[in-house]
Amino acid sequence: MISFERVSKRYEEGHDALREVSFTIEKDELVFLTGHSGAGKSTLLRLIMLMDRPTRGQVTVDETGLHSVSRRGIPHHRRKIGVVFQNHQLLYDRSVFDNVALPLIIAGYDHREVGRRVRAALDKVGLLARERAMPVTLSGGEQQRVGIARAVVGKPKILLADEPTGNLDPDLSAEIMRLFEDFRQVGVTVLIASHDLVLISRLHHRIMTLQEGRLIAGGGA
Amino acid sequence: MGVADHQAPGKSTGRAGASQSRAQVSHQLRGWLQHHRLSAAQSLLKVLERPAASMLTWLVIGIALALPVGFSVALDNVDRLGAGWDSPAQMSIFLTKDVDAQRAAAMTASLQQHDQIDSVNFVSREAALSEFAALSGFADVIESLQENPLPDVMLVTPRRDLASEAVAALRDELAALEDVDEVVVDMAWLQRLQSLLELSRRAVLMIGAMLVLGVILILGNTIRLAIEGRRDEIVVVKLVGGSNAFVRRPFLYTGLWYGVGGGLCAGLLVAAALWFVDEPVASLAALYKSNFSVVGPGVMGVLNLVILGGLLGLAGAWLAVTRHLSKIEPR
């Protein structure tokens, strides 16, 4: 579902964020991506999202080589991917419901369908009762779950998460991880960047480790 | 192709696939229309949420549009006033002094047969003198004159449908007649007025063009500020797959609402200005025994203003959006 082939990324200021990274993630797989901050985790996710282009090498997502996706094709590509951000990236001037509905409205769904799917997603993360609430009134864990609901509401094939448990206590973190495991069960490919080694090593999934831009473990499929 | 088929890759084969993708296209179209409705409504709400700031923008646009429109309405009215005087371009034929009453009468009769002349009114020199004496109050002075200094005059009204060149030709023809001393056409001032009006019209067009450009820039700047204010939202929308068209849409509607409101303001301002001058114009016209009254832009004119405002709003928003939106990318 996601494959990197000798991918390098050098930023303009000369910093090598990724060096010759190769790996393949199959459909239905849940993979953790770990490493110190600055090891290249975020860069790797950005390449999958087409927020950046690799300097060398080939990224393939859902059988599409990303070098062939034009600027105009980027929005279409991003709709295949659900993303959960560490800082939630919610819109604070609108309700939980409207936040979760955003990807569906962008994809042009009919409003009845939007209502149905948004409630299903909120139900899945246990926030159905809060659909009318504003995000600021929610706790950090709840806001993160709104972010997850928004990431999965469009039924993406791929779910990316960048430090989804960054600011949460261990219990909440474990709960969030259980949610991701549930999505893998229904056929979503999940890639989670996290430096919470204690938590992720308990979960028995493949762990890819980046160090100074090189993939030093977990690359083989 | 495109939007519809990424949701069912590999499935759009055969007839079932085709009808399925057609259903998806119509579903996408409905969603697209719904987003237009939503953007329009939400932009309008956002504009109305801050009534003071929006009112200021509306007024600025309204004044900028009302100035050229007001001038052009004024010019139209002056034009109408000129048109009222235009058709009876009267000619005065001054006869030489040695013409006697009989020849003058014969000439009057023959001119009345002329196919370019509507009517001829003969004023004899005696009649002219006594009229002048009565009206001027110089009766005593005139009585003391040994000789009547005034010539016989024929007031000739050409047919109304004559073009100004034909009137000029008629004047030359009449001037060449025997016994005619001079022919005076009271049209020079009218021509001056017409050229003055034409000049003013061009000036108004020029000023109007500049103000329209100003309106576009003002709106562009307003929209730029709106874009800056919603930078975070744009980033999030782009992250979850919003296309540039999707991001652009609410801003274009915001521009449209500002423009439409501005056009409406301009219409109201012009109407208020006309109402303000209506009474003095009416009393002035009454003094000249005319029933002239000021004609405003009318409902259609105001509607045109609103449409013009809307188009300018869209143009300004488009300008701002194409310049600034592509620069906002998720970091």
Describe what you observe in this structure.
- The complex is a heterodimer of chains A (221) and B (331).
- Chain A has two domains: 2-80 and 156-217, Rossmann fold (3-Layer(aba) Sandwich), CATH 3.40.50.300; 92-151, no CATH class.
- Helices cover 33% and strands 25% of the residues of chain A.
- Chain A is built from seven helices and ten strands.
- Chain A has helices spanning 41-49, 74-78, 96-107, 111-124, 140-152, 170-185, 197-201; strands at residues 2-10, 16-25, 30-34, 56-61, 64-65, 81-84, 158-162, 189-193, 206-211, 214-217.
- Chain A is globular and about 45 Å long.
- The mean pLDDT of chain A is 89.
- Chain B is α+β, with helices and mostly antiparallel strands and 331 residues long.
- Chain B has two domains: 36-84 and 192-327, no CATH class; 90-186, Alpha-Beta Plaits.
- Chain B is built from ten helices and four strands.
- In chain B, strands 2-3-1-4 form a four-stranded antiparallel sheet.
- Chain B is elongated.
- At the A-B interface, helix 2 and helix 3 of A face helix 1 and helix 8 of B.
Keywords:
heterodimer, A: 221 residues, alpha/beta, Rossmann fold, 2 domains, six-stranded mixed sheet, four-stranded antiparallel sheet, 7 helices, 10 strands, 33% helix, globular, B: 331 residues, alpha+beta, Alpha-Beta Plaits, 10 helices, 4 strands, 7% strand, elongated
